[in-house]
Amino acid sequence: MASTWGENIKLSIFGGSHTEAIGVVLDNLPPNEKIDMEKIRVQMARRAPGKDKTATTRLEADEPQVLSGLFNGVTTGAPLAAIIANTNTRSKDYSDLKIHPRPGHADYTASVRYDGANDIRGGGHFSGRLTACLVFAGAVCRQILERRGITIGAHAYAVGSAKDTPFDPVNVSKDDLNALNTRFFAVNSPKAEEKMRAEIEAARLDADSIGGIIECAAVGVPAGIGSPMFGGIENVFASILYGIPAVKGVEFGAGFDVACMRGSENNDAFYYDENGLVRTKTNNAGGILGGITTGMPILFRIAVKPTPSIGREQHTVDLTTKTNADLTIHGRHDPCIVPRAIPVAEAAAALALMDLLR
Amino acid sequence: MASTWGENIKLSIFGGSHTEAIGVVLDNLPPNEKIDMEKIRVQMARRAPGKDKTATTRLEADEPQVLSGLFNGVTTGAPLAAIIANTNTRSKDYSDLKIHPRPGHADYTASVRYDGANDIRGGGHFSGRLTACLVFAGAVCRQILERRGITIGAHAYAVGSAKDTPFDPVNVSKDDLNALNTRFFAVNSPKAEEKMRAEIEAARLDADSIGGIIECAAVGVPAGIGSPMFGGIENVFASILYGIPAVKGVEFGAGFDVACMRGSENNDAFYYDENGLVRTKTNNAGGILGGITTGMPILFRIAVKPTPSIGREQHTVDLTTKTNADLTIHGRHDPCIVPRAIPVAEAAAALALMDLLR
Amino acid sequence: MASTWGENIKLSIFGGSHTEAIGVVLDNLPPNEKIDMEKIRVQMARRAPGKDKTATTRLEADEPQVLSGLFNGVTTGAPLAAIIANTNTRSKDYSDLKIHPRPGHADYTASVRYDGANDIRGGGHFSGRLTACLVFAGAVCRQILERRGITIGAHAYAVGSAKDTPFDPVNVSKDDLNALNTRFFAVNSPKAEEKMRAEIEAARLDADSIGGIIECAAVGVPAGIGSPMFGGIENVFASILYGIPAVKGVEFGAGFDVACMRGSENNDAFYYDENGLVRTKTNNAGGILGGITTGMPILFRIAVKPTPSIGREQHTVDLTTKTNADLTIHGRHDPCIVPRAIPVAEAAAALALMDLLR
Amino acid sequence: MASTWGENIKLSIFGGSHTEAIGVVLDNLPPNEKIDMEKIRVQMARRAPGKDKTATTRLEADEPQVLSGLFNGVTTGAPLAAIIANTNTRSKDYSDLKIHPRPGHADYTASVRYDGANDIRGGGHFSGRLTACLVFAGAVCRQILERRGITIGAHAYAVGSAKDTPFDPVNVSKDDLNALNTRFFAVNSPKAEEKMRAEIEAARLDADSIGGIIECAAVGVPAGIGSPMFGGIENVFASILYGIPAVKGVEFGAGFDVACMRGSENNDAFYYDENGLVRTKTNNAGGILGGITTGMPILFRIAVKPTPSIGREQHTVDLTTKTNADLTIHGRHDPCIVPRAIPVAEAAAALALMDLLR
């Protein structure tokens, strides 16, 4: 169902880039959970635009206003609702898009889907701005999950040809993730960040954009979470991760690399560690067997396509004259979505885990 | 929810490898749809084991028995239910697994999840045998979709290092897919099949297994199907595709390759074709923008891990003595799941489209 | 799931009596539907308090603020969200309720359910005030349904021993319903209203309250809507009607009177009317057979309990000292909920039909 | 969704009166629950026809065959599936119904809903026979609930004008319910049974049928179960109870009698009992406040319409000639459904509680 998600929690997201506000409702949270608004702001700031040259220079006041669900800073068990006002919007930039759909955007498909009634200003309900709601909701869940010993973190795994040091699938630790999960443009290796920034700057100077991959880990998730078939960790994670605009691939553990692997190499051998806990020597499974957690770190990667809004002239159609046309998109856009999408991936993981653990 | 799937149709799958039967219920199908049982048998035979050396030599009588939902071969609108009896089972092969969980299998995670009550015989409800139910249900949906002009087909895209010719993302046709979608070990290039069979045979002779990738296409899906956010084509497809055991990655269109692409390269330019239809010159989007179909072929790939059951000795644990242990799995197993999983991927795509189009 | 409802539309309601705002999100509405805000205000005014002596004298500014989903007054297909600010709240009235739960209210059960974290001010998320959100969402749906030829209306069927003239189950017309569905304290017979007002005034003067029954009809619903078993009209209607606080019974058509009826009397004989349409001579079925509409008027009644907040001293417990206690509730309360609940019942019916028709 | 039900458990029912079998799948049951098949047979026998003159003399071999979900008589956590073969069917009795829809039956509405494709033999998927699946699934849940201290029982509250002694809303006990819940034609007062049997016999001799009311109680349900708004006990119970064919009303506690009550009378005063537990002196709430259990007995009643199949000539239409027609239904039918529906109501209550407690 479009903008509602979850089986055990219910997430409902609304709004568009240029509506009065965007917002989020999160139902069935556990009661009596203290929520630190400052921690939420930290996460929202990581996603907010205007940081540096890797992102659009638009300034958005992403201050969430909680309308319900908290009393004296504590969850009441009733739906938690928050809105974020839309302020710095330039509606004139978008006047042309009903006629000339932008390649790589949802302008055309939304127009067919909604008989032309879709609010196209700033991408409307398809705007990446809506991920602010995911980050808000995820930031709430992360605080609850942390109290249950679960830590989530992500980094820019690749931007163009530049690659970061991947997580150690077996030993990635809470500390590793905490070192990442409050940073903007989180990476494991500072050198990788340099190279990535160079790729992004090159794209920007070319009036172009560049794609990338985000890797995310969750540690502290106990064994036995998830269900077979359609209730598996992978199913639940993918069902929300593909809700992040621009994601075109999701893989877990060794992911697509399993294609080249032998079973003897891919199988993760079980052993008892010094504390008498069952662990695996490798973690090609990404912490998931049969859809259910093994107790090892959960690991996934998402492929993020290059921002479709680019400054170069592109070929498109004129939907009124039914002829081919050219389009130059003006306005400010992110040359690379990856840095700002990192906290979104973490938030989605937090929501997925909250849903699975309720 | 574990073994139930779908928003507009409802799929419910039950049974285990060694229960009396496995079965499937499919609710909310359109009425008055003629269902050809012979076409269903063709699909089920493609998945059934015992074909050749690429697969287990177990023989399973995968004859579905329809219990309800059809009257004189036509859908009544009431739930369509079918069961497949379990016959050729060797229960003695599995007696040890409660104590020594097989690496790469769900034995350990299921045991934690279900407090040891899980039926471990043949993998129980986690068995790949359950995909017979998916193929049955998908084969029903495919006949309905074909009447609406939609054709689905898939091929072995990679097995180990051997690669098949990929689909032409723009021009893959109904005929291309029909040439594949009744074959066992479907490939676009006969040479690729040879190489793939060699990889599989090498693995088999090593008492090992090998992974691969399946590529699937659906043509004839009209533009405007799907919804934003969590109701997108990618979300719905992934939520069922990850229900196929052994799938560790799902990607659409250019998939993970978008990481290295510039926006100017990845964006698919729109144009009007000779029939006045909007099309795109490339199809990196895999036929999906903003979660909604563009009218171009839908394209996705799934990563299939190597069969975890291998003949080699492996390291595991003894859950009773809480010590490390070695395990040698006897019995007959597929050295590569890819050939038999091809019709399963097609079936999952059919179910996803049926759900989206209802 | 608590505060989310619907299979084909998704309704999400949030807020409490004394939170910053209450609000509602309605996803999957059809696009291109013009929504007249003035008609929404008419419905909300019918539910708003402060009308006359039958209702609480509290004044609530029930002005909905639409945040998204409409563009130039037309549905975009994206989630429609609206909030209603909470203004005239007297928090001090409710300070005692955590200790002394009010009989007939959710204070005690919510406290157990939410480990004492529930926001008890004004009943919190259990407050009848939340029905303003139902009325808003229903008023949106009614405008869409009217364009499809469907009209909904309700009246006070009973208040205490005073009874109104019931709807003619066979001939209740669009005009009959339109004469009711914009009025406060809607009744078919003015004499009945007089008697009902007398009952309410008597209760009010006794510092007490009185219950009643609301009868609701929907005309113009085509035959063939609904599904067997759990997808029936009755199931869907009841699942939302019981979301109205104070409802303790729901019946359709002849309802509980069927207990005393013979089959020969209860069965509604089919016949062809002058327009060649299948109709029934009686309508004991309330327009529903096998969960599916017959094309005759849909008829249901809901039992509304007397307002639990009364001025009289009542027996309760002290949850801190674990002793019995007495409680006198101060503040302003409705001596009878029935008049204000009429538009809520209509709204729930509209939402149910919208869900069934999507 | 038609024939699927539940949020935390998933119930899926399939089959028709004359299909090869009817069946049920129950997903997400807790593992490690011992299920006594004999207890299930006791419940199914209570619903089975052919007992005495109050019921149809058809003989149905309602022997459930478990296909999966149990291993050595214990739940595995995987979906529990069972089928019941259809044997003693007289297809010829129903040949006329596509043309002449039976008044009070779903023949006409199903025909419109499913474009004439519905399997009309014996009512198809709308047949009361499907309640055997509810009884099976409920009997499984009752065994699990009993281990958690919850007991369910019901009785014939009314048949025509004959009334049984109602449950004591405050003191109805586990023993009271156990005295009822294995009996056929369960009543509290033997005299009431006599009068009810007389009403049924009179209807039968008139080639007619008679309606009634069933009252059901559940004791031992702890306080704090259920949720506000649409997740309330009443919503969940009603959503499954209306899945029982012939139910036209559902009420809780004082139900429709609240219409005539003052708040001072209807409010249930809280007090501490001798064990320090919060209880209420009366139980007009039927154990539910704000949708959440109080810990007092849950009480509800359902109105059961007279069997629509009667021997008398009735008026209907000829759907082929589009003219009015007369119809005489042959075959064997229950003059009153109430006795056989008692275990069905109990089963539905058990399923609802299982869903709420998971």
Gross geometry of chain A: globular
Oligomer: homotetramer
Structural class designation of chain A: alpha+beta
Give me the strand/helix succession of chain A: EEEHEEEEHHEEHHEHEHEEEEEEEH
Mean pLDDT of chain A: 94
Strand content of chain A: 15-25%
Uncertain ranges of chain A: none
For the termini of chain A, the CA-CA separation is 20 Å
Mind describing the biggest β-sheet of chain A?
5 strands, antiparallel
Backbone CA Rg of chain A: 21 Å
The count of β-strands of chain A is 18
Number of separate structural domains of chain A: 1
Q: What is the CATH fold-level name of chain A?
A: Chorismate synthase, AroC fold
Label the CATH architecture of chain A.
4-Layer Sandwich
CATH homologous superfamily designation of chain A: Chorismate synthase AroC
The largest contact between protein chains, plus residue counts on each side, is:
A-B, 108 and 108 residues
Q: Number of DSSP helices of chain A?
A: 8
- Write out the strand line-up for the largest beta sheet of chain A, numbering strands in chain order: 1-2-3-7-4
Structure description:
4 copies of one chain form a homotetramer. Chain A contains 8 helices and 18 strands. With 358 residues, the first copy, chain A, is of the alpha+beta class. Chain A has a single domain, classed as Chorismate synthase, AroC fold (4-Layer Sandwich). A 5-stranded antiparallel sheet of chain A has the order 1-2-3-7-4, covered by helices on one side. In chain A, strands 9-8-10-16-11 form a 5-stranded antiparallel sheet. In chain A, strand 17 (313-318) and strand 18 (323-328) form a beta hairpin. The first copy, chain A, is globular. Chain A starts with a strand and ends with a helix. Chains in contact: A-B, A-C, A-D, B-C, B-D, C-D. Chains A and B meet through strand 1, helix 2, helix 6, strand 11 and helix 7 of A and strand 1, helix 2, helix 6, strand 11 and helix 7 of B.
